[in-house]
Amino acid sequence: MNALAATSRNFRQAARLLGLDSKLEKSLLIPFREIKVECTIPKDDGTLASFVGFRVQHDNARGPMKGGIRYHPEVDPDEVNALAQLMTWKTAVAAVPYGGAKGGIGCSPDELSRSELERLTRVFTQKIHDLIGTHTDIPAPDMGTNAQTMAWIFDEYSKFHGHSPAVVTGKPIDLGGSLGRDAATGRGVLYATEALLAEYGKSISGSTFVIQGFGNVGSWAAQLIHEKGGKVIALGDVTGSIRNKAGLDIPALMKHRNEGGHMKNFHGGEVIDSSELLVHECDVLIPCALGGVLNRENAPDVKAKFVIEAANHPTDPEADEILTKKGVIVLPDIYANSGGVVVSYFEWVQNIQGFMWDEEKVNMELHKYMNSAFQHLKAMCKLHDCNLRMGAFTLGVNRVARATLLRGWEA
Ligand SMILES: NC(=O)c1ccc[n+]([C@@H]2O[C@H](COP(=O)([O-])OP(=O)(O)OC[C@H]3O[C@@H](n4cnc5c(N)ncnc54)[C@H](O)[C@@H]3O)[C@@H](O)[C@H]2O)c1
Questions:
Q1: Which of 54, 123, 296, 372 falls between 20 and 30 A from 382, CA-CA?
Q2: How far apart are CA 168 and CA 174, in angstroms?
């Protein structure tokens, strides 16, 4: 099942639990606007190249739409649609005053020079500048894009609309980015895991962890869990997987990776086959890499008691059913990885206020948002007698439906 089908299925299940009016249900599923633009740029060798850019704006009942822009050869309109919808529910679960959007350009960023990427980003911004904005739709980085991409969008947009740092988040600190944004998703994963474990009388320090992915989210999550006394006993990325029953030395592994080292060459762990990683014995499994990694083939063998979905959509619906039957507790992505969008919201607030917060305040506020969302999610589980995924979806969908009804949607 692809991401759009799975997201829409979860939405419909939540709509049924909430007893939503069928017309409202249909309306909430249809995106507000789908934009497709052609971006032609001169390449460094003087030839012309054309790329297709997308932006799907899903819903704005609760505020300006918010979501990343990815540069990837397989940017697919269906997937962008699913991710835009997911952002609508995610921002509602996090209780930040945003709707949902997502975008991308079908390109291979690794095959483009820096100046070609800059031209492409500027042309894309020229094509969509009237449709995004501080109070309309606020892009952020995603796969294949980064703080520099956001700096170019901010600069190009400001040529049309005047100085507008709040039009994008995930900017470099020198241009109004927020302290703590880099670590925010991983830190949010830590806070979400702490909140869940506490429900079962457990804590980070007494638990063992397996983590897939050692990029932005995975490395911060691993580092923060390690600092809290958690034992990361196995870890893998695209270069391989390793384990150490006594717990991996995460700061040493970070240093190794930052120096260009591969997992397999790290001396503090024993190399394992990557297929063993997700089914390795542990208390908590945290997928922080790709979507769909837990599927019907490996789900029956998962030994973790808890799965924290730090990646987007790591568990396919068949695996979800298998894990539920086995009694594995799955903390869903629309809550577990929402730390990034929460701190993006703080960045937007700081830009609008023209006042920069210190990192301590950012982390303290993030903690409050993650804890509060968890309490509300739990209350929905109790109310609807459902699992955490449906608790999150009913929480998000209900908030968006209420805002839609209050604004009046049929006139
Ligand atoms: N960065 C954020 O703020 C953020 C926010 C919400 C959700 N997410 C989601 O979290 C996930 C990770 O994002 P990121 O920003 O850390 O990306 P990243 O590109 O920084 O890191 C990705 C990691 O996954 C690993 N990986 C790639 N292919 C793999 C494979 N086949 N097997 C094992 N590992 C593999 C890479 O080696 C790398 O360590 C994605 O699903 C993303 O959508 C990220």
A1: 296
A2: 14
pLDDT digits (tens, 9 = 90+) for 7-43: 889 999 999 999 999 999 999 999 999 999 999 999 9
Our answer to whether residue 171 is catalytic in this structure is: no
CB 341 within 8 A of CB 66: yes
224 CA to centre of ligand 1 in angstroms: 17
**pLDDT per residue as tens digits for the range 84-138:** 999 999 999 999 999 999 999 999 999 999 999 999 999 999 999 999 999 999 9
Domain 32-89+98-170: CATH superfamily, name plus number: Leucine Dehydrogenase, chain A, domain 1 (3.40.50.10860)
CA of 215 to the centre of ligand 1 (A): 6
Pick the catalytic residue: 36, 66, 90, 102? 102
Q: Compute the distance from residue 69 Cα to the ligand 1 centre, in Å.
A: 15
Which residue do the tokens 């607030």 mark? 349
d(CA 1, CA 70): 22
Q: What is the mean pLDDT of residues 222-250?
A: 97
- Homologous superfamily of domain range 182-336: NAD(P)-binding Rossmann-like Domain (3.40.50.720)
CA 389 to chain centre: 15
Nearest residue (by CA) to ligand 1, atom 32, is: 238
Q: Is 215 in the pocket of ligand 1 (CB under 6 A)?
A: yes
Using CA atoms, how far apart are residues 340 and 183, in angstroms rounded to an integer? 8
Task: List, for residues 288-317, the tens digit of each pLDDT value.
Answer: 998 899 999 999 999 999 999 999 999 999
* Closest residue by CA, ligand 1 atom 33: 237
